[in-house]
Design brief:
This protein has 16 helices and no strands. It has 382 residues and is an all-alpha fold. It has one domain. Helix 7 packs across helix 14, helix 9 packs across helix 12 and helix 15 packs antiparallel against helix 16.
Length: 382
């Protein structure tokens, strides 16, 4: 018999690490709104402060290497935590549980979008959401810029990246250039670039526009999973360069709507790919796009998991990361300009964008509530 002084919690059966990982990340996948920064804050609170799975230093190491890798940073942190808590099975389970709820919801919304998106009421809702998405991107640029552009050199790298992006230079090459410039400065004549492993990523779908089939869809999103650095907002630059400008699979407005879905749903912003995959090739396209864009995250975390502490301390890799982050910010600025031209077509849309930006920057209102408010405003305005 238990002691009467024994805490009640000790009488409860203890969950296995796998069950703990599944429970936590499935809940976060359903409830974690607000984008990568909010997701990471929630994970830190749950895994460090509440559950004591990691020390704060260990969590920061995981976050540092996730920022260094291409792909969805918050999803990669979830995958790392799953690996640390429950080994290789935890690695897979954490990622799947965090990604799956948003992917299923994005598929459902895409189904409704294809059937009702052309109706007047739905058009009004999207009219109101698009300027909010532009404001959210501007807020992210402002917030991340204070961290990423910490020197004059990095500010120049970011500005040049934005300028070259506006005249049509591909985002992969711009990120490679930004990382290489900072590595050159750091090494002071001893260049040993670590980015060559990613250069293959421009090859699978290079050239003229491809017809939409499941193989080309998989290759496009697999490439994105391997080359998109920074937050989910940087994904917009790559999506626009590949799917709008080069392949002509989407229009600017469809891209905005896909981004709005990624913002509105909980979980990773990269489930924008799920929505786009459904638009392009139905349920199979949604599944293939989702698997393709997230697969590199699982692979890269599996490779780097045991090496986190050493990679985090490398001066050369830190320099590359600084350059890539500055370039990513420039890409975000350029794509936000393009999206703003497509979203802000009249005075009411401009007012929605300005009010949203003010509320985000001044009061840090949750972006989900602003998207809901934009949808309501658009419904009544149209």
């Amino acid at each position: 018999m238990s002691s009467p002084h024994e805490p009640a919690a000790a009488l409860e059966p203890r969950q296995s690490p796998l069950a703990e990982v599944a429970q936590l990340f499935l809940r976060l996948g359903v409830t974690a709104f607000g984008g990568p920064a909010a997701h990471i804050a929630l994970m830190e609170d749950e895994t460090v402060a509440r559950r004591k799975w990691l020390t704060r230093e260990q969590f920061l190491d995981l976050l540092g290497i996730a920022n260094l890798l291409p792909g969805p940073s918050s999803s990669e942190v979830a995958i790392y935590v799953g690996f640390k808590r429950a080994g290789w099975r935890g690695l897979i389970l954490a990622g799947v549980c965090f990604i799956l709820p948003a992917a299923l919801l994005a598929t459902l919304i895409a189904w409704a979008y294809l059937r009702f998106g052309s109706l007047p009421h739905a058009a009004g809702v999207l009219y109101g959401i698009r300027p909010v998405v532009v404001a959210i991107a501007l807020q992210a640029i402002w917030r991340l810029g204070k961290t990423a552009l910490k020197t004059t050199t990095l500010a120049v790298v970011g500005t040049c990246t934005a300028a070259f992006s506006l005249i049509g230079v591909g985002p992969v090459w711009l990120l490679l250039l930004g990382g290489s410039v900072m590595l050159l400065i750091q090494q002071a004549g001893r260049i040993r670039t670590r980015l060559s492993a990613f250069s293959f990523a421009a090859l699978p779908v290079a050239g003229s526009a491809l017809s939409i089939n499941l193989t080309s869809l998989f290759l496009v999103f697999l490439k994105l999973g391997f080359v998109v650095f920074g937050s989910g907002y940087v994904l917009l630059a790559f999506l626009r360069a590949d799917l709008v400008a080069r392949l002509h699979w989407l229009t600017e407005k469809q891209l905005l709507d896909a981004v709005a879905v990624g913002q509105f749903t909980p979980g990773p912003v990269f489930t924008t790919a799920t929505f786009i995959g459904y638009l392009l090739a139905g349920a199979k396209g949604a599944a293939i796009a989702t698997v393709a864009i997230f697969l590199p995250a699982f692979i890269l975390v599996a490779i780097t998991g045991p090496l986190v502490s050493r990679l985090r301390k490398s001066p050369a890799i830190s320099a590359i990361l600084d350059g890539v982050n500055a370039g990513s910010l420039g890409l975000m600025a350029a794509v936000t300009l393009f999206l703003g031209r497509a979203a802000i077509l009249d005075v009411p849309a401009a007012v929605i964008a300005l009010v949203s930006a003010f509320l985000l920057l001044r009061f840090r209102v949750n972006s989900t509530w602003l998207i809901l408010a934009g949808a309501v405003a658009g419904y009544f305005l149209k």
